[in-house]
Amino acid sequence: MLKIVKKTEATIKQKIAINIVGIFAALTAAALFLALSGFNPLQVYISMVEGALGSSYRISQTVIQAVPLIILSLGIAIAFRMKFWNIGAEGQILMGGFLGSYFAYNFSQLPKPALLLLMLAAGAVGGAVWALIPAWLKVKFHANESITTLMLNYVALKWIEYLSAGPWKDPAAFGYPRMPRFTENAILPNVFGVHIGWIIALVLVVVVYLFLNNTKKGFEIAILGESENTARYAGISIGKTVLLAVCLSGALCGLTGIIQASAVNNEMSSALANGIGYTAIITTWLSGLSAPVIVLVCGLFAILTQGASYIQTAFGIPSAAASVLQALILFFVLGSDFFTKYKFVWQKSEHQTKEGK
Amino acid sequence: MDQVAYISMKNIVKTFGKVVASNHVNFSVHKGEIHALLGENGAGKSTLMNMLSGIYLPDGGSIFIEGKEVHFSAPKDSIAAGIGMVHQHFKLIDVMTAEENVILGKKGLFFRKGESRKIDALAKQFELDVDLHKKVSDMSVGEKQNLEILKVLYQGARILILDEPTAVLTPQETRKLFAIMRKMKAEGCAVIFISHKMNEVMEITDKITVLRKGETIQTLNTAETTPKQLTDLMVGRAVDLTIERLEQPAGPELVQVQGLTVLKREGTPALQNVSFAMRGGEILSVAGIAGSGQKELCEALAGLQKVKEGKILFQGEDLVGQSPKEIRRRGISMSFVPEDRLGMGLVGGMDMVHNLLLKQYQDQKGFFLNKKPAVEKAAEIKEKLEIATPGISKYPVKNLSGGNIQKILLGRELDSDPEVLITAYPVRGLDINTCHKIYDLLNEEKKKGVAVLFIAEDLDVLLALSDRILVLANGEVTGIVDARTATKEQIGLMMMGQKATELEGTAVVENC
Hints:
The structure holds two protein chains of two kinds. In chain A, 71% of the residues lie in helices and 4% in strands. Chain A is mainly alpha-helical. Chain A folds into two domains: 1-39 and 317-346, no CATH class; 59-307, ABC transporter involved in vitamin B12 uptake, BtuC (Orthogonal Bundle). In chain A, the strands form two sheets. Chain A has a two-stranded antiparallel ribbon. A two-stranded antiparallel sheet of chain A has the order 2-3. In chain A, helix 4 packs across helix 10 (238-265) and helix 7 packs across helix 8. Chain B is an alpha/beta fold. In chain B, the strands form four sheets. A seven-stranded mixed sheet of chain B has the order 16-17-18-13-19-20-21, sandwiched between helices. Chain B has a six-stranded mixed sheet with strand order 6-7-8-3-9-10, with helices on both faces. A four-stranded antiparallel sheet of chain B has the order 2-1-4-5, with helices on one face. In chain B, a hairpin with a 2-residue loop joins strand 1 and strand 2. Chain B is globular. The model of chain B has no long low-confidence stretch (mean pLDDT 87). The interface between A and B is large, with 32 and 46 residues.
C-alpha cells in the first residue's frame, strides 16, 4: 500500500533541487502537449529562448516585461511577509496610473524632470491610498483583506473605464473611449535602450531587501507575520505596522502603474494592468518573498512570456499554448513543495523486513 | 508471567530523518495490568504509543496482540484491535453533547438513538461520571476526560493508553481517575499510563517500563523500585531530586494588585476582584485548574490585557492601561515568560539571534537593525544555559526541543535583569533535568531580590519551591497560603472553589 509520510524538513539545497526537478517535469509535460499538437518540442523550446534572448532588441523587450513584474513582486512581498494577502495589485496599478496620469495630463507645461518626479510620486501615492482602504478595514473591523483587495480591483477598473469614456476622453479619438497620449515630457527616458524603469526596479530590489532584513520596521513586519500574539507581547503597535506595510506595498504597485503608463503605453488606459497584478502574485510566491530571488523568477517569467509571443509568430502556436506552459510550470513547482515536506513510502501488506539503521 | 502478553511490541524501530526515535524497543503489557511508560521528553514514549495506535508506521519490528502479529496502517486498525488512546489534548467537539461525541467515531451515516442505553450501561460499569446530554463546552476538564475514556471504551477498547492524564486535574479529580483505572484493571483491561509525576506512577501502576533516548532501559515491578532508582534510570545517571526552597526574609512589596477584574471576550469575568502583593526576593505561586484566570492574570500584569477594574501598582505607580512599551519606557523592568512559548514569547520561524533581538531592538536608535549585540548575547546565553542548537543564526527555534526553546525564552527574559518576573507554566512538558535547571534559575532570581510569580500545575513542586501560594478558582482568589504549612488536599479544595478561610487548619497569609 502506498503511504504518505511526513519527513524532516528539507535543507535549502534539497529544496532548490526539488524545485528544479519540478521545472523539468513541467517542461516534459508541456513537451508532451506540444508533441500532441504536432510540434517538435525541442525546437519550440530552443526558439523560445532565442525569441527572448536572441538579439539585443529581444533582450530589451524581455527586460521591459520583467520590470513591472519585479516592482510589483517587491510590493506584494512586503505585504505577504506580514501575511496580509494583498490580491489588489491590479487595482493599485490602475489607481497609481490614474493619479500619475492626472499630473501628466494637467501639468504638461512643467519641465520634464519635475513632471516625471511628480508623476512617479503621485503614482506611488495613488497605489498606497488604494491599498490603505482594505488595510484600514482590516485593522478596524478585521475585514478579510483577500476579499476587500480583490473587490477593489473591480472598482478601480470601472473607475478608469468611466474616465476614458467620459471626463478624460480624448476629443481627438473620433468618439472612441480612450484617453489622450502623454506629451513628450511626460514619458520616461530610455537608458541603454530600455526605459529607466529597469534602474528603478534594481534600486528597489536593494532597498526592499535592506528594508525587510535590516531595519527595525522590517523586523516588526516579519514578527507580525509570524504571530500577532508575539507582536503584541513585544510591544509592537499592530495597527500602525499593518497600515505602514500595506501602504508601502500599495505604493510600489502604484509606482508600477505610472511607469507602465508613461514608459510603455505612453497613455493611461483601462488595459494598463491587464492581469499583470495577478501574475505578480505568482512570481512573488515562487520567489519565497525574497527580494533577490524575485529578480530571478521575474526574469524567467519574462523570458517565458516573450519567448511565447515569439513562437506564436514563428510556429503559429496560439498564445493560449504559452499560457498553458506557464501554468504547467507553476503547477509543478508549487506541487513540488509537497515533496519538501512529505515522501511516499511503499508499505508491504505482509511481513515487514526493512530494518532501521 | 506465564500467560501470553496482551500486547507485545518487539524490536520496534522508527526513524524520523536522521533521528532515531525508537531503537529496537521492546514493550509488553498483560491483562489486568496498569503499566507506566516513563522517560524524559524525547525518550520516545509518544512515538511508541503513536505506533501502537496506528498513527505512525514502524520502520521495523513487530506488534503482537495476544500472540498474533498485527499490522496497523491507520488508527482505525488499532481501534479495531481494541486499543484506545486518550490524548493529552482532548479530541472532543465542543458544541456537541457527550452522547454525540461518543457515537461520532462509529461507522454508519446516521445517529442510532438506541445506543443511549448501551453507553449509559458502559459508563455505569466503569463508574465514569458523565452526563450524556451535557454539551462538551459546559464540562469541566475532569468530565471531559471521563468522556474521552467512555468514547474509547465504547469503540471497544480493552487496552487504554492515557497520555499524561493527570497534568490538568486537581488532586481530587486525579483520585477519581485512579479509581476508574483500578476498575478497568479489575475488568481485565490493560492500561498504559504515561506520566511525569513519580508519586502517581508509584501509587497506581503494577509495572514500569523506562525509556531513554529511544531505547528500552528496563521494565520493573513497581513494588520493587523507588522513585530515586526510576529517575536515575530515566536520566542515565544519579540525579538530585530535591527541590530546594531558598529561605530568606521577603523584601519590600514591589507590586500591589488591587481589586483586579478582567473580562473575557464574551464579557464574562476571567478575573474577579483579585488582590494580592508580590514581594521582592520571594516566589509567589499561583495554583488553579487550567483556565481559572491564570493567563489573564499574567497578561494583565504584563500590560497585554485590558483591565476592566482595579489597579496594578508598581512601587505605587498604577500600570493599568499602559502598553508593554510604555511600561518599559517608565524604567520598569518586568519580564514575562508566557505559557505559549512559540506563539507569544518567541517567533518560531526565526533564529535565536532574532528572537533575542525581539526584546532589544526597540531600545536601538535609528532606522536600521543592529544585530551584533544580539549575536553576542545569543552566544553568551547558549553557553550559560547549555542550549543545544545547530546554530544561533539561520536555524529556526521551532525546530529545537521544548527544553531548549524554553531556555532561550528564559535566557532572554532573565538577561534584562528584571525586578519582576512572571512565569506561566515554565516547566510544562520539560524533562526532569531541565525542570530542575529552571527551578534553580528561579531561585537565583529570588536571591537577587526579584519578585517572582510562578504558575505551574504540579502541586508538589509549588509546595516545595515557593514561599506563598495564591489559589485561583473561576477567576477568584480563594486564598493565599503559606507554602511551608499548606497541604495538597487543602490547595486542591481551594482550587475547587472553597475559601481558605472556610477550611480547617489552613494557614492563611492574607485575607482577600
